[in-house]
Amino acid sequence: MKSIYENQVLQIVIFSVIFGIGLAKLPEGKKKPIVDFMESLSETMFKYTHLIMYFAPIGVGAAMAYTVGHMGIDILKYLFMLLITLYAALIAFILLVLLPVALYLKIPIKKFIQAIKEPVSIAFATTSSDAALPAVMRNMERFGVPRKIVSFVVPTGYSFNLDGTTLYLSLASIFVAQAAGMDLSFGQQLLIALTLMITSKGVAAIPRASLIILIATAEQFGLPIVIIAAILGIDELMDMGRTSVNVIGNCLASVVVAKWEGEFDDSKAITYKD
Q: With 134 labelled, which of 67, 121, 182, 266 sits at a CA distance of 20 to 30 A?
């Protein structure tokens, strides 16, 4: 309770993991009521966050006015630089990490792009991975990934394979530190990155949910929250990119697992059509 009161995210995450392991070891009859309660509570909080986001434009305007008033108009230039840096990092991740994996596994790149362009477009437009989920599962199955693998890997990846979100959180936290004039050592930066890798798991696949993780982690390391309020002004544009990369990573992960299990249908991939 003390960790929750003081918003010590890392301790909360470790407790949650150990609690989940203990819950998994219980007989079905004893753990089902707790699991059902947790799932209902989780869905309720997702809806709660979604409702709060309707008031986000008012908060964004007030936050930007306060930040510009205290830090000057130059903050807008730095926010634009943050946006460009994020997209450069996301593109580099796709070209230097995801593309080599696809080439190594001999996945037909052009057909794969055809298969993911619809769900990625939906994710980019809505900034929500959940909105793209039906298209992801349908297209990956048509691409040659068995239903049993798609239905396990993709939903799991929505909680644990958030490449774009992790990149965004790392960049945003360093931006906040630099804007506040804080000189973080390499060890501190590495610790922040590792903490964000853990705390970002299970984040809701809805717009602006990542900001909650960023705020909680910032408080953990003494970073000023007011600068995060300024990021909220361009978060919509950044959310488009990071959500799209999350979807691309999950689509590729389903193909990788299918290849790994020897159940990928290469003939479907080669003959795939929109």
A: 266
Strands of the chain, DSSP E: none
- Look at 40 and 195; give whichever has higher pLDDT: 40
Contact of 159 with 201, CB cutoff 8 Å: yes
What whole-number distance in Å separates Cα of residue 150 and Cα of residue 257?
Answer: 9
140 neighbors 254 (Cβ within 8 angstroms): yes
Residue in 128, 101, 100 with CA at minimum distance from that of residue 255: 101
Closest residue by Cα to residue 86 from 210, 205, 204, 195 = 210
Return d(Cα 212, Cα 190) in angstroms, integer.
Answer: 20
Spatial separation of the C-alpha atoms in residues 28 and 35, rounded to whole Å = 10
Kindly report, residue by residue over 240-252, the tens digit of the pLDDT: 888 889 899 999 9
pLDDT, one tens digit per residue, over 121-133 is 888 887 777 778 7
Q: Is 203 left (phi over 0), alpha (psi -120 to 50) or beta?
A: beta
CB 202 within 8 A of CB 159: yes
pTM of the shown model: 0.72
8 Å CB contact between 263 and 149: yes
HSE at residue 267, side-chain half, CA atoms within 13 A, is: 0
Rounded to an integer, what is the distance from CA 93 to the centroid of its chain?
Answer: 14
- Six-digit token pair at 173? 């936290």
Asked whether the beta carbons of 159 and 89 are under 8 A apart, the reply is no
Residue 7's SS3 state is: coil
Q: CA Rg, the chain, in Å?
A: 20
Cα atoms found within 13 Å of the Cα of residue 131, Cβ hemisphere only? 15
* Contact between residue 209 and residue 167 where contact means Cβ atoms under 8 Å apart: no
